[in-house]
Amino acid sequence: MIKTIRPKVELLNKDFIEKIINEALDILEKQGVFVENKEALGLFKEAEMKIEESAQRVLITPQLVQDSLSSCPPVIKLYDRTGEKEFVVGQDEVHFNPGSVAVTILDQKTQEQRKAVTEDVVKFVRLTECMESIDFQSTGIISSDVPDIIQTAIACSSG
Q1: pLDDT above 50: residue 103
Q2: pTM for the model
Q3: Which domain does 33 fall in, by range?
Q4: Are the C-beta atoms of residues 90 and 78 closer than 8 Å to each other?
Q5: How many domains would you assign to the chain?
Protein backbone atom coordinates (compact mmCIF):
# COMPACT_ATOMS: atom_id res chain seq x y z
CA MET A 1 0.00 0.00 0.00
CA ILE A 2 1.23 3.51 -0.80
CA LYS A 3 1.70 5.72 2.23
CA THR A 4 -0.27 8.98 2.11
CA ILE A 5 1.96 12.03 2.03
CA ARG A 6 0.64 15.24 3.53
CA PRO A 7 2.64 18.29 2.57
CA LYS A 8 3.20 20.80 5.34
CA VAL A 9 3.79 24.49 4.83
CA GLU A 10 5.84 26.16 7.54
CA LEU A 11 5.91 29.92 7.15
CA LEU A 12 8.01 30.58 10.25
CA ASN A 13 11.06 28.73 11.52
CA LYS A 14 11.02 27.26 15.02
CA ASP A 15 13.37 29.91 16.46
CA PHE A 16 11.13 32.73 15.24
CA ILE A 17 8.02 30.99 16.60
CA GLU A 18 9.76 30.62 19.96
CA LYS A 19 10.65 34.33 19.91
CA ILE A 20 7.02 35.30 19.22
CA ILE A 21 5.78 33.08 22.04
CA ASN A 22 8.34 34.45 24.50
CA GLU A 23 7.46 38.03 23.61
CA ALA A 24 3.75 37.28 24.00
CA LEU A 25 4.38 35.75 27.44
CA ASP A 26 6.44 38.81 28.37
CA ILE A 27 3.60 41.15 27.35
CA LEU A 28 1.04 39.13 29.32
CA GLU A 29 3.27 39.24 32.40
CA LYS A 30 4.33 42.91 32.21
CA GLN A 31 1.43 44.64 30.45
CA GLY A 32 -1.37 42.23 31.24
CA VAL A 33 -4.89 42.12 29.85
CA PHE A 34 -8.05 44.12 30.53
CA VAL A 35 -10.70 41.98 32.22
CA GLU A 36 -14.23 43.30 32.84
CA ASN A 37 -15.90 40.10 33.99
CA LYS A 38 -16.02 39.86 37.80
CA GLU A 39 -16.11 36.06 37.77
CA ALA A 40 -13.01 35.97 35.56
CA LEU A 41 -11.25 38.44 37.86
CA GLY A 42 -12.12 36.15 40.77
CA LEU A 43 -10.58 33.18 38.97
CA PHE A 44 -7.39 35.16 38.33
CA LYS A 45 -7.30 36.11 42.04
CA GLU A 46 -7.66 32.43 42.98
CA ALA A 47 -4.74 31.68 40.65
CA GLU A 48 -2.77 34.36 42.55
CA MET A 49 -2.28 36.64 39.55
CA LYS A 50 -1.44 40.28 40.20
CA ILE A 51 -4.51 42.43 39.52
CA GLU A 52 -4.48 46.19 39.11
CA GLU A 53 -8.01 46.76 40.41
CA SER A 54 -8.49 50.35 39.21
CA ALA A 55 -7.57 49.46 35.64
CA GLN A 56 -9.09 45.95 35.75
CA ARG A 57 -5.76 44.75 34.40
CA VAL A 58 -4.51 41.25 35.13
CA LEU A 59 -0.83 40.40 34.85
CA ILE A 60 -0.61 36.77 33.77
CA THR A 61 2.47 34.70 34.56
CA PRO A 62 4.04 32.41 31.96
CA GLN A 63 3.44 29.52 34.35
CA LEU A 64 -0.34 30.09 34.36
CA VAL A 65 -0.30 30.23 30.55
CA GLN A 66 1.68 26.97 30.34
CA ASP A 67 -0.52 25.26 32.94
CA SER A 68 -3.66 26.39 31.10
CA LEU A 69 -2.37 25.20 27.74
CA SER A 70 -1.29 21.84 29.14
CA SER A 71 -4.80 21.28 30.53
CA CYS A 72 -6.42 21.78 27.10
CA PRO A 73 -7.16 18.83 24.85
CA PRO A 74 -4.79 18.63 21.87
CA VAL A 75 -7.76 18.31 19.51
CA ILE A 76 -11.35 19.49 19.54
CA LYS A 77 -14.14 18.48 17.22
CA LEU A 78 -16.64 20.90 15.73
CA TYR A 79 -19.82 19.77 14.02
CA ASP A 80 -22.15 21.32 11.48
CA ARG A 81 -25.70 22.30 12.42
CA THR A 82 -26.98 18.81 11.73
CA GLY A 83 -24.33 17.26 13.97
CA GLU A 84 -23.19 15.08 11.10
CA LYS A 85 -20.12 16.66 9.55
CA GLU A 86 -17.13 16.67 11.88
CA PHE A 87 -14.17 19.03 11.74
CA VAL A 88 -11.05 18.21 13.73
CA VAL A 89 -9.30 21.31 15.03
CA GLY A 90 -5.75 20.65 16.13
CA GLN A 91 -2.82 18.54 15.05
CA ASP A 92 -1.97 19.55 11.49
CA GLU A 93 -5.54 19.88 10.25
CA VAL A 94 -6.22 22.90 8.05
CA HIS A 95 -9.64 24.52 7.72
CA PHE A 96 -10.68 27.66 5.91
CA ASN A 97 -12.70 30.42 7.52
CA PRO A 98 -13.69 33.65 5.77
CA GLY A 99 -12.59 35.78 8.72
CA SER A 100 -14.34 37.30 11.67
CA VAL A 101 -15.75 40.39 13.35
CA ALA A 102 -16.35 42.68 10.38
CA VAL A 103 -18.22 45.73 11.69
CA THR A 104 -18.67 47.38 8.31
CA ILE A 105 -19.39 45.99 4.87
CA LEU A 106 -19.41 47.22 1.29
CA ASP A 107 -23.07 47.63 0.33
CA GLN A 108 -23.73 45.71 -2.91
CA LYS A 109 -26.27 48.21 -4.22
CA THR A 110 -24.69 51.55 -3.30
CA GLN A 111 -21.02 50.44 -3.36
CA GLU A 112 -20.64 52.43 -0.12
CA GLN A 113 -19.16 51.20 3.14
CA ARG A 114 -21.74 50.98 5.92
CA LYS A 115 -22.37 49.30 9.25
CA ALA A 116 -23.56 45.72 8.99
CA VAL A 117 -27.09 44.75 10.05
CA THR A 118 -28.75 41.44 10.87
CA GLU A 119 -29.89 40.91 7.28
CA ASP A 120 -26.21 41.03 6.22
CA VAL A 121 -25.32 38.40 8.81
CA VAL A 122 -28.06 36.09 7.51
CA LYS A 123 -26.87 36.52 3.91
CA PHE A 124 -23.27 35.88 4.97
CA VAL A 125 -24.15 32.66 6.80
CA ARG A 126 -26.21 31.40 3.86
CA LEU A 127 -23.36 32.16 1.48
CA THR A 128 -20.65 30.49 3.57
CA GLU A 129 -22.77 27.39 4.10
CA CYS A 130 -22.96 26.94 0.32
CA MET A 131 -19.21 27.21 -0.20
CA GLU A 132 -17.57 23.80 -0.13
CA SER A 133 -14.11 25.30 0.43
CA ILE A 134 -15.25 26.98 3.67
CA ASP A 135 -15.34 24.45 6.48
CA PHE A 136 -16.94 26.75 9.05
CA GLN A 137 -17.20 30.39 9.88
CA SER A 138 -16.80 32.25 13.11
CA THR A 139 -18.73 35.42 13.71
CA GLY A 140 -17.97 36.93 10.32
CA ILE A 141 -20.07 40.04 10.71
CA ILE A 142 -21.16 42.03 13.76
CA SER A 143 -24.68 43.35 13.37
CA SER A 144 -25.14 47.01 14.36
CA ASP A 145 -28.91 46.69 14.80
CA VAL A 146 -28.69 44.60 17.98
CA PRO A 147 -28.02 45.89 21.51
CA ASP A 148 -24.41 46.90 22.25
CA ILE A 149 -24.06 44.23 24.93
CA ILE A 150 -24.72 41.52 22.33
CA GLN A 151 -22.30 43.09 19.84
CA THR A 152 -19.59 43.16 22.51
CA ALA A 153 -20.24 39.56 23.57
CA ILE A 154 -20.06 38.36 19.97
CA ALA A 155 -16.88 40.29 19.24
CA CYS A 156 -15.20 39.02 22.42
CA SER A 157 -16.11 35.40 21.75
CA SER A 158 -14.85 35.58 18.18
CA GLY A 159 -11.68 37.54 18.31
Answers
A1: yes
A2: 0.60
A3: 14-70
A4: no
A5: 2
